[in-house]
Design a protein that fits this description.
This protein is mainly beta and about 210 residues long. It is about 0% helix and about 45% strand. A four-stranded antiparallel β-sheet has the order 1-2-3-4, with no helix packed on it. A four-stranded antiparallel β-sheet has the order 5-6-7-8, with no helix packed on it. A four-stranded antiparallel β-sheet has the order 9-10-11-12, with no helix packed on it.
């Protein structure tokens, strides 16, 4: 067997990994114990691991794009989770996908669900805000080049806790509901580029 992860600092470990066709991307505290970073390494061990996020403390490793060219991960500074994409060849630094352009005023922010669309060009994520009394969620989408950041639901919702992507990634389906009293719920379909949305359960009576 081949050891792909290279040397680890004392106490360090590999904490998550995704395998592509030619290489694997993994999350490990290899340099500083307790500070995770992302690395890519060929599956055949023909080259040493390549550091993708030097100096960043990686919180979660979410996904590897279908073509293996980009990885999705987050950091969690000052109680605010931030979503990044980085090329697996480390050709450019990590790009902050969702740290700007989204208003926040709550005590903590985190991502409840993060998914790549089927074409690998866009990420859809459920962003939660916690004000210590309840959690509100918003559904957002962005292209992996950092453009076209759009909100896919009309406003903060307590009832919005998950979504499902169509296989081609063009649409997302989620359950929407009353943000205060759970007075109603309805199934909604939205285009992931934010261009349109439609209620799939007509006849649901809103208060």
């Amino acid at each position: 067997p081949l050891v792909l992860s290279g040397a680890l600092v004392a106490g360090g470990s590999v904490n998550a990994f995704w395998a592509g066709e030619e290489f694997v991307v993994y999350q490990a505290d290899a340099v500083v114990d307790g500070r995770d970073e992302l690395y890519s390494v060929p599956l055949d061990g023909s080259a040493p691991p390549l550091a993708l996020t030097p100096g960043l403390d990686v919180y979660r490793f979410y996904a590897l794009a279908r073509d293996g060219a980009r990885a999705l991960f987050s950091t969690y500074p000052h109680s605010e989770e931030r979503l990044y994409v980085v090329p697996t060849d480390a050709s450019v630094p990590p790009l902050d996908l969702a740290g700007s352009g989204i208003p926040t005023g709550f005590a903590a922010t985190f991502f409840w669900q993060v998914e790549l669309t089927g074409d690998g060009q866009r990420v859809v994520f459920l962003r939660a805000e916690d004000d210590d009394s309840y959690v509100q969620c918003e559904l957002w989408s962005a292209r992996l080049d950092g453009t076209s950041l759009v909100q896919l639901n009309p406003g903060p919702r307590i009832a919005l806790t998950e979504f499902r992507l169509a296989p081609d990634g063009a649409r997302v389906v989620y359950i929407d509901g009353d943000p205060i009293a759970f007075a109603y719920s309805e199934l909604v379909s939205a285009r992931t580029d934010g261009s349109s949305w439609r209620i799939l359960t007509p006849g649901v009576e809103r208060p």
